[in-house]
Write a structure and sequence with these properties.
Number of helices: 16
Organism: Pisolithus microcarpus 441
Number of strands: 15
Keywords: Metal-binding, Zinc, Zinc-finger
Shape: elongated
Protein name: RING-type E3 ubiquitin transferase
Strand content: 15-25%
GO molecular function, one term: zinc ion binding
CATH superfamily of the largest domain: Zinc/RING finger domain, C3HC4 (zinc finger)
Distance between the termini: 66 Å
Structural class: alpha+beta
InterPro entries: Lon_prtase_N (IPR003111), Lon_prtase_N_sf (IPR046336), PUA-like_sf (IPR015947), Znf_RING (IPR001841), Znf_RING/FYVE/PHD (IPR013083), Znf_RING_CS (IPR017907)
CATH class of the largest domain: Alpha Beta
Radius of gyration: 33 Å
């Protein structure tokens, strides 16, 4: 550190006292200003230049180019009132640093840098009492000195060592970064405190109950400590910020993965983030240039024999964050949109949640040749599809479905033709989509209107026939079949093969007695 105490001491002058004088019993407010404790008689910051519109603290630093709609959590007036009107306490960290600047601790050096602020002041300046570390007033003009002041610091190296120790976060044990001071007057890195509050709403040091999570959304950084860090440790502070950014964004495994449920591209998904690890993941996603994350299904309760514990979880859907509604306790409701599929090539964990290296999966031209037969044999069980070729085209299959109705005449009879053509190895994409539309029309005729409404709301509106790829995913999602069965659509790169799988599932549904009698669970 190239600065001597005389060049730093002005940072610890009270901005309210007139004339400016050394802080006595410093207390840090929610706005980030540190003043003498006697100036905190009300919940309003006494600093004339204080701006109450600053949004720092726990509010994510969303890039300006982001299209995310972010809605902060509603404020709890009870938490704010309780924290604002509590008895003023001594800012432990600033008080400890101030002791390093005092003549009794600095020997004979820099005594000219101090005014007569150690003496009692009148009403225009300050008060005649200070606070102990526990927040109890006592009659003394000098703040409590928890350090051993009998041993003076006689060199810049010793001062630098002592100051560095006071600017170390007790959670990460590294240099403070974006310091935030709690109502109990303990200071931590902003991100470290966030992680701690994800697990418990108690102070990591004194275990005192802290206000709700929403209280810290606009809780500004400690201005005195931040100025000290930028002036005395500018290079170290910048390196600390770069290290945090590199650790979160520039790792080889750079894709956060949310283990939750099945999803497909082109569909909206409403998610509830409440686990501490995923709350942290969401904050990092919001602050990234690309606010996306992958989502996969949880593994089966009983893994498939010979396929390992991760069988069926190699494929997922990448989600783009559209809007975030924060809740007062730190949870959030997140609206996302599936944008494309991916395959996990390598996976690991970061702070409790999964990260991975993934490759994107896109559809290619539907040219059902030899590769199609190989893909069917590899990815699709034989029970899920109709064979690619037959020696003789079978006759059309007629399916009779009886829907619940008031009159016995309300019986719908319709046909689904086999997805095999007499002149081709497989039926055309248009014919397969027509079979799906027949199924949907039958479903709408025999189902209560609210069920259809729920389908459209949950999975989004039905895609246009001009986009058969999106239609195949939407059709697969609305079918009342097992989720792990639906997940077999994810690795298939052929739209026509996916539609053939869907039609195969439709035929299996209509062959079941519970479905043919109108018993449908949505």
């Amino acid at each position: 550190m190239s600065y001597y105490p005389s060049e730093l001491v002005s940072l610890f002058f009270c901005p309210v006292c007139s004339p400016p004088a050394f802080l006595v019993a410093p207390t840090t407010l929610r706005c980030g200003h540190t003043v003498c404790s006697t100036h905190t008689s009300s919940s309003v910051c006494p600093v004339p230049t204080c701006s109450t519109t600053q949004r720092q603290g726990f509010t994510p630093s969303i890039p300006p180019s982001s299209r995310i709609e972010f809605f902060a959590a509603p404020h709890s007036s009870e938490d704010v009132s309780a924290a604002s009107h509590s008895q003023p306490r001594l800012d432990v960290r600033i008080n400890n640093i101030m002791q390093l600047f005092r003549p009794t601790h600095l020997g004979e050096r820099d005594t000219s840098s101090y005014s007569d602020d150690e003496s009692d002041r009148d009403d225009s300046g300050t008060r005649s009492q200070t606070l102990t570390p526990r927040g109890q007033p006592r009659q003394s003009a000098q703040a409590t000195t928890p350090l051993d002041s009998s041993r003076p610091i006689n060199s810049a190296a010793e001062f630098d060592k002592a100051l560095t120790a006071e600017l170390t976060c007790e959670i990460c044990l590294m240099l403070l970064y974006q310091p935030v001071t709690t109502p109990c007057q303990h200071t931590f890195c902003s991100k470290c405190l966030q992680k701690s509050l994800d697990h418990s709403m108690l102070c990591p040091l004194c275990r005192q109950d802290l206000p709700g999570f929403a209280y810290f959304q606009e809780h500004s950084h400690n201005k005195v400590l931040l100025s000290l860090l930028l002036k005395a440790y500018a290079n170290d502070y910048a390196s600390r910020g770069e290290a945090i950014e590199n650790a979160e964004r520039h790792a080889r495994l750079d894709t956060p993965i949310f283990v939750c449920q099945l999803s497909f591209p082109g569909m909206p998904t409403l998610l509830h983030f409440f686990e501490p690890r995923y709350r942290l993941m969401l904050r990092r996603c919001l602050e990234s240039p690309s606010p996306t994350f992958g989502m996969i299904m949880p593994p089966r309760a009983a893994p498939l024999l010979g396929h390992g514990a991760t069988a069926g979880t190699e494929f997922g859907t990448m989600h783009e964050i559209r809007s975030v509604q924060m809740l007062a306790d730190g949870r959030s409701m997140v609206q996302t949109w599936g944008i494309h599929r991916f395959r996990i090539l390598e996976r690991d964990s970061l702070d409790g949640y999964m990260i991975g290296r993934v490759e994107r999966i896109d559809d290619y031209d539907d040219d059902l040749g030899e590769w199609a037969a190989e893909e069917v044999r590899t990815l699709i069980p034989s029970s899920s599809v109709v064979p690619l070729s037959v020696s003789r085209p079978p006759p059309p299959t007629v399916l009779t479905l009886t829907m619940p109705a008031r009159s016995p005449q309300n019986v719908t009879r319709w046909s689904i033709f086999s997805p095999l053509d007499s002149s081709q190895q497989s039926q055309s994409t248009e014919a397969l989509m027509a079979a799906c539309h027949l199924f949907l029309s039958q479903l709408c005729e025999g189902t209560a209107p609210w069920v259809v409404q729920r389908l459209n709301h949950t999975y989004g509106p039905q895609p246009s026939d001009d986009d058969p790829g999106a239609f195949s995913f939407w059709m697969g999602m609305v079918l009342p079949i097992d989720e792990h069965e639906k997940a077999k659509l994810l690795p298939v790169k052929s739209v026509r093969l996916r539609l053939r799988m869907v039609v195969g599932w439709i035929e299996q549904l209509n062959s079941n007695w519970w479905f043919s009698r109108g018993c449908i669970v949505i």
